[in-house]
Specification:
Elements: H1 19-31, H2 37-43, H3 53-62, H4 76-83, E1 88-96, E2 102-110, H5 117-122
Antiparallel strand pairs: 1-2
Helix pairs in contact: 2-3
Length: 123
């Protein structure tokens, strides 16, 4: 009888999720603010992790991160400042000259430098 009550007991409930998986889930949530817990759950089998969507939701909740895409992401202004080098404004128009000729013009403007093609060509 004494042996029965002396062995160490396990804690009740399910074991905690491995720390490596928790770190990976939080990293994915911070790197991809538009992803919800279901998207993060869908990306986990790639590295070889199997986890239920509710577990991903619980990990995000415990870390204080919203589990839905309501997380604050990049503002529109910050996005435009970061992407300005690659954004071009394009306009196509025509000009009627004094000699009754019509010229068609295709004009590009680089947002990052706010310069047109003539200013770029002179440098």
């Amino acid at each position: 009888m004494r042996r029965r009550w002396t062995y160490p007991r396990r804690k009740p409930g399910r074991p905690r999720t491995a720390q490596a998986i928790r770190v990976r889930v939080l990293e994915m949530a911070r790197d991809n603010p538009g992803w919800g817990y279901r998207r993060i759950h869908g990306e986990l089998p790639g590295p070889g992790y199997t986890l239920a969507p509710s577990t991903v939701w619980q990990i995000l909740k415990e870390a204080g991160i919203d589990p839905a895409p309501r997380r604050s992401g990049q503002t529109w202004r910050a996005f435009l400042q970061a992407q300005a080098k690659t954004i071009l404004a394009v306009d196509f128009f025509h000009v009627d000259t004094v000699f009754l000729r019509r010229w068609h013009v295709l004009f590009f403007l680089e947002h990052g430098t706010r310069r047109g093609p003539a200013e770029v060509a002179r440098e």
